[in-house]
Amino acid sequence: MRTARRGGEGMLALLALGLWLLMPPVISLFVGPYSLFGIPVLVLYVFGVWLALILATALLARRLPRGERRLPDLPPPSDPEPD
Amino acid sequence: MLSANVVLLTALAYVALLFLVAYVSDRRSRRGWLGLVRSPVVYTLSISVYCTSWTFYGAVGSAARNGLEFATIYLGPTLVFVGWWFLLRKLVRIGRIQRSSSIADMISSRYGKSMSLAVLVTVIAVIGTTPYIALQLKAVTTSFQVVASATHTELLGVAEADLDLRAGFWVAAGMAVFTILFGTRNIDANEHHHGVVAAIALEALVKLFALIAVGLYVVFAIGGGIGEVFALPTAPAVLGAEVFGSRWVALTFLSATAIVCLPRQFQITVVENADEEHLRTAGWLFPLYLFLTCLFTLPIAITGLATLPASANPDMYVLTLPMLHGQGALSLLVFIGGFSSATSMVIVASIALSIMVSNHIVMPIALRLSWLSPAVSGDVKKLLLVSRRVSIVLILSLGFVYFLFSARSDALAAIGLIAFAGVAQFLPCMIGGLYWHRASKAGAFVGLLTGFAVWAYTLLLPSFEDGGVLPASLFSEGPWGWSLLRPEALFGTAGMDPLVHALFWSLSLNAGLFVLISLAREQNTLERLQATLFVDVFRNPADKESRFIHRSAAIDDLFVLAQRVLGAEQAHRLFRDYARRQGIEEGLPRPSTEFIAQLEREFAGSIGAASARVMISQVVTGETISLGEMMRLVDETQQVIEYSQQLENKSQQLQMTARQLRQANERLKQLDAQKDDFLSQVSHEVRTPMASIRSFSEILLETGDLESEQATRFLSIIHDETLRLTRLLDEILDLGHLERGELSWSLEPVDAEAVLERAVATCRGMAAAAGARLELGARSGPARVLAHQDRLEQVFINLISNAIKHNRSPAPVVRLSSGIAGGLYQVTVEDNGEGVPAEARERIFTKFSRTWTQAPPRDVGAGLGLAISRAIARKMNGELELLPASPPGSGVGARFRIALPLAAASTVPPVPAPLRRAGE
């Protein structure tokens, strides 16, 4: 329960960070004629943040607890009603 | 150039491959070999049905026009999948427990299995999806004509008027056959279509492979490297576009919404989900897929703009770039990739829509009109299958007709975002339904209807503006000249981006009405039950439903019903399994409440929750929904939350109490030490005079012939010491009284100046004896304070006598001054002695603190004077303090100041002032 909560909080923080990084005004900071290794900084930034989000999600997903795998299809075998 | 026949043959071969893959996977899954099909990777790949031909061809076109804006369509879903733990996991869990067969089914099930809501959602979904299907048909048609074109001029863009519509028809027909074959083979209780999912996953691989191949070719073969591509003169124009405004935010939000609300996405992500754990992989793998899809979009757009003539259609760059460079095989691959993305969307969308139409439109009508002849085994199942097949054909025909009429206009180009905005209307009631207990059916219905109407008016209608069907005055002046109702400037909000404008008005009105009406209207019992089961899905076990709905039915009726809905074989298996579970080896199970609940869930999986409920109700007698039981469930959940909050509070309180106790304990220890100190000091003080009394009385007793003069001297010493003892004991008692707050005297207004005068007069004799001079400085004049006259005099005398006694100066001077400041009457007593040593300043007001003076003990009291004086001053609500030391050599020694509040003029009758406890 505790790890679920912490993992969930980590994921929420990651989500908030991703939103913050990809929305204006932060993203607008990278607009401009600058480039690195021949690639515009804006392009590097957007795709870099994107890839970082993917990696962080993959790492975080391992830490989140696994749900119970039982399919909740059928009621328990005991049948309290005699009729 | 490729001949049309080669292209056609390749496409046919590809379709044949799809059929084969679907067929094999379907067979394998029927035999229970789910292996590969049930893997998280296949699940993730099938979710990429999100990337249609609109992505495959359109992303580059969008990048060529608006730069990075194309990325929003993929960043939104990325963010949703990054946060899969919150929304998607809950959706999938609920979808599995409730056996939701579509997004309409889930929404209707949440709001009390409402039939009307399901119909509304279905209608919106069909209206929103049909143009999108038309868009796919158009993309396939255009790309086919481009790839099979004979000349360069044709290649640069097929004029809309020359569009060959036959290709569109054959694609639609082919997809209808495929979808009917693999999408409606049977009515699965879980609506899992393993064959379709496998084919979609294969298509996902093909389209990604094609995009990456063409990207690599464009960047490295045409451009000569990444840096070179971004150095092309068109790059700054593409990247320089000012896109990070409200449209950027709106598009990201819209695409995030679409990945959840689009009927085909819901079908793949929720309904076809085989295992909740697959989300763990999809959470990062699907964003990675999107990332790879977008990786080469910008380079292709930049290269296309730089090397192709301006008349070329940017939406076809992906295809025309390799063709212009004579790469026949690559162009064919690209065409197949685009074909894949179009067909996968068409297949899944038509399956999702056909389920919705048959479950929520055909079934209710059939139930109402009694089309179903009673007691024919499998009749419902048959009706469903037929209606699904018919609706697939109808939906695809509708898409084709739409394509036919709009193919020659630009209306289709913008349809992707328009469709997104349409299904975004599901968002408020869906999110509200998942997280808000009070969300009600009426609110959801009205919100949805309003949002849909506003969407149609502000976004869908203007897309027909150029078609000539609608009068232009509607858009420039508003309907009937009401400019406030202009579709693209609702309520005068002109100047906004049309999409942002429509999204803002439709969603805000939708969500606003939804919340308002939900707050105003009470839910009915079933709504409340479903709300609890949805919102608290992670807290409640699935089978709790049977706790609240008590039903009974004849088992024979149930069996007949199950045979009709599920077919004879499946019904038989279900009943047999359940009977065994109840311990019955032969025959039918007992129709317990739990069994009926399970049966209803099974039905819901094939015909939708609302219809399942209607069908079950036909044979059930005496249904009672136990409200009390339900409230208890809500209460239990609430209680658990409250308990845990209370526990947290309690533990915090306990920590605080423990801290306070520790502090109190420290203080007690200190007080104990002080008490010990005090006792030892008292005994010490008493011991000295006692010792001299004892020794002198022993002398008097033992030596009988003492001279009377000497005897008298001894006796007077004994007398003096006794007096000193008495005084000491009196002072201790006095201090004790003062500290315990036992006041034997009351406060009354007195003239403090007069009291000071008397004290000075009393001390003059002592001063003269010590050779000290008493100087009177500035005086305040009469000042009335609340005090006790004798006690105040005692304080003054104590201060003055201390100043005389402890003054080591050769010419001792004691200066007195008084004044009024800030409502306080203040008297300062200073001497010209050595002052109080710094290390003793803290201690002098404590008991027996004589250590700072070098005066012979006999001259000094017990060291209680200042302690008593301060206690008295505080009893009078005043204060006695030692003023900061003056620099040495200034001729000023210790300076004490007593300050007392002036009595208010009105307090003529003396009111006892609030008491302050000593030591505070």
Keywords for this entry:
heterodimer, A: 83 residues, mainly alpha, two-stranded antiparallel sheet, 2 strands, 5% strand, elongated, disordered C terminus, B: 920 residues, 5-stranded mixed beta sheet
Form type of chain B: elongated
- Rg of chain B is 48 Å
Portion in strands of chain A: under 5%
> Helicity of chain A, in percent?
40-55%
Average pLDDT over all residues of chain B: 81
The total of beta strands of chain B comes to: 9
Mean pLDDT of chain A: 74
Number of helices of chain A: 2
**Main sheet of chain B, how many strands, which sense, barrel?**
5 strands, mixed
Biggest interface, CB < 8 A: A-B, 49 and 60 residues
Largest sheet of chain A: 2 strands, antiparallel
Oligomeric grouping of the chains: heterodimer
Approximately how much beta-strand content do the residues of chain B carry? Answer: 5-15%
Overall geometric form of chain A? elongated
Total number of helices of chain B: 36
The secondary-structure class of chain B comes to mainly alpha
Return residue spans of chain B where pLDDT drops below 50 for at least 5 consecutive residues.
Answer: 852-860, 906-920
Which strand order does the major sheet of chain B show?
A: 4-6-7-9-8
**Residue share in helix of chain B:** 55-70%
Secondary-structure element order of chain A, as H and E? HEEH
